[in-house]
Input
Amino acid sequence: MADDTPTREAEDQTPPTTQAGFVAIVGRPNVGKSTLLNALIGTKIAIVSPRPQTTRNRILGVRTTGAVQAVYLDTPGIHRDRKNLNRFMVQEALASVDGVDCVLLVTEVDPRLLERAADGHPPGLHPDDAYVLQQVRSHLRAPKAAEQALVIVVNKVDLVRDRGRILPLLASWSDAGFDRIVPISAKNGVGVDRLVTEIHAALPTGPHLYPTETLTDRAERFIAEELIREQVFARCRQELPYAAAVVVERFTERAEAGDVVIEAVIHVERDGQKAILIGKRGSMIKAIGTAAREEIGRLLGCTVHLTLSVHVQEDWTRSPAARRRFGYE
Output
């Protein structure tokens, strides 16, 4: 009779158990969600800006570490304004929560709460964080909700020299019933490794969802549009960045030359905004194009030829048809 007992050699050839799952990154505007996504992925795929409400669409990023694959969903900031473009942004964020395996609720070290704690008063939760928490909980659907891990990520700890000062903020989340609280600096990488450990512990056993080399499901055309819009946010003031939408009209990879040719249009709502965006003798649009071209080239790993133009689409943020055209509906 044959001996069916596995040999040591056969045991060594058994494939490792794999894990894979979805992780939603949510929070109020301007707490560093996109910076955190880039830190978790290990490369820049989401644009960042010190201005709130920079992110408009859900951005998916994939990081495969050995047998574990985490699929991250960066989302627009959750806020109370539900008009026009803002309504689309909040819906994008809350829709990303449904059915994921782990939710990272990102907040930040808030100076006002630190001052309150320094005066001996319990800081409590920031009102906007409490609102985000309520909205997120309302979108965690049973029976999956019971299985979803909710991790509180306290970002921007690098802004506080004495780390002991943030302990009351962490205690406020603990008093609210949370035991997974991770202080980090997404900008400097502090605490990110510990956060990754928490994330991996929450992911279920199962096959990987994307090929190992995948970084995002977004097309290079979309990433190029976002990197151009990032430079509009970086260089233009007041309301202009919020009235800008970028559409890549041509994206041509030239294998023989080893480069990419991109033609893009920046749409704004007013003639005055167009004039500002172009600048004196074209100085502003040239600066935006130069910086965006460098960012896109860094991402694609090749030479990029970028041409920008500016068009006026009056009140496009208030028009459902225009928002659909620009991918925001």
Q: What stands out?
A: The beta strands are 19-27, 59-65, 68-74, 102-108, 149-155, 181-183, 245-254, 259-268, 303-312.
